[in-house]
Amino acid sequence: MQIRIARWMITMKPLNHSYHLSAKCSYPDISKSMIVIHPKDPSTRFLHLIYEDIDGVLFFDSISQRAQVLDAIRNASKDEYILLLGHGTPHGLLGGFIGDEDAEHLRDRPNLVGIWCYASTYAYKHSLKGFFSGMFISEWCEAIDNDIKAAPEEIEEMCWTFAGLFGDLLRDGKPLEAIAAELMSQSNINSDLIHFNYSRLTYRTTGMEELPVKEDYWGYEVPILEG
Fold first, then answer.
1. Quick check: 58 and 203 in contact, CB under 8 A?
2. Which residues are CB-contacts of 33 (< 8 A; sequence separation ≥ 6)?
3. Does the model's pTM come out above 0.85?
């Protein structure tokens, strides 16, 4: 535990994050192998909290590994966790890792996770199962573009808290459906920024759910918010 706290202090900006590391000393082996695709980018470094300290992670962060990424996905069991993390568009994960042409390899995978801007639109478009973010404000310029008043420090706090909570639930061995339900809970929403991001999270059980949409600032179709 002391080693883990030291790594937290070294790799993360020392803000007073509302997410706190679990006091557990070990975590269950969630699967024989978890595939994580997280392109190198300092602006999304907070996402490593989702998968750190999980056994059996098969990790990719460079476009030079694209062939290996696709081989790993094709050879993965249907129930294996596949995490796609970073920046993106409705056409896939930026960095050239995953695009529209690769969606066929992601279908019928209930433990697929996509955390990038407009991952939910990509999922609806390609009939994917799993848990996805919509437009997700992680930078101040994105808040301005979407008329959300939030200081840069608030945005950073929200990002680290979201990833930390997600990772803690994952390490606790909870199924993805339960993780999604907890992250999407109204109890987590206490600001306009959090409402914007969390209201756009979606969990798809069949891959055939319809998408009620509207156009956002960028002209992309996104889920219509309730309430």
1. no
2. 56, 57, 58, 76, 80
3. no
CA dist., res. 220 & res. 132, Å (int): 16
Tell me the C-alpha distance between 201 and 165, whole Å.
14
Query: What token pair was written down for 165?
Result: 């909570």
| Rounded distance between C-alpha atoms, residue 138 and residue 193, angstroms | 10
Domain ranges of the chain: 31-223
Closest CA to 134 of 58, 213, 61: 213
Question: For residues 110 and 213, what is the distance between their CA atoms, to the nearest angstrom?
Answer: 23
Measured CA to CA, the distance from residue 55 to residue 26 in angstroms comes to: 10
Q: Is 100 helix (H, G, I), strand (E, B) or coil?
A: helix
**Each residue's pLDDT tens digit, 17-70:** 333 334 343 344 454 479 999 999 999 999 999 999 898 899 999 999 999 999
Between CA 155 and CA 165 the distance in angstroms is 15
At position 1, the amino acid (one-letter code) is M
* Distance of alpha carbon 107 from alpha carbon 175, whole angstroms: 18
How many degrees, rounded to 5, is the angle at CA 11 between CA 59 and CA 151? 110
What ranges in the chain are assigned the alpha helix state H?
Answer: 2-11, 66-75, 119-125, 140-145, 152-171, 176-183, 192-198
Domain 31-223 part of CATH 3.40.50:
yes
Q: Name the CA radius of gyration of the chain, rounded.
A: 17
